[in-house]
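Predict structure. Chain length: 159.
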Amino acid sequence: MSVKYKRLTKEQLEALHQEFANFLASQSIDKKEWDEIKTNKPEVAEKELDIFSDLIWEGVLTNAQFLEHFSKNHIFLFHCQKEFIQSMVIKSLVTEIDFMTKNGLQWLSDNLFTETVEMHVGKKEYDGDRNKAIFNLITEGAILSDGQLYIQINSILQS
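Prediction complete.
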């Protein structure tokens, strides 16, 4: 069995130390036995890390509702529904504007509904596995968000 998403980093695994201990305990593996597995059966240890990583990713992705991806001249906002994903793409037509800065975001706030900003709204059904689709957006640079920006812009567009 290969990992479905990707193995958590060493830092992520350390941060989830207690969850990993509980995961091992659910399989009746205590610390002493885990140390033996790591030493004597590294391939089994690798497999356990992959299974645990997939479980964590599955939980995160299942609960994901909003994603954001900022670049210099674009902001991609996603609302992950059950059957489809809604997107908003905001593009600055003023190339000097940088959405990665506070000034760039202030400029956007002041110019959102002017001819210097393009906005596209879309909706796409998942090609298959919802969580895999969300994971792919994350690997491309999107981050989980509280959705405030999406919700604010969407409510302005709806009114």
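Summary: The two ends are 50 Å apart (CA to CA).
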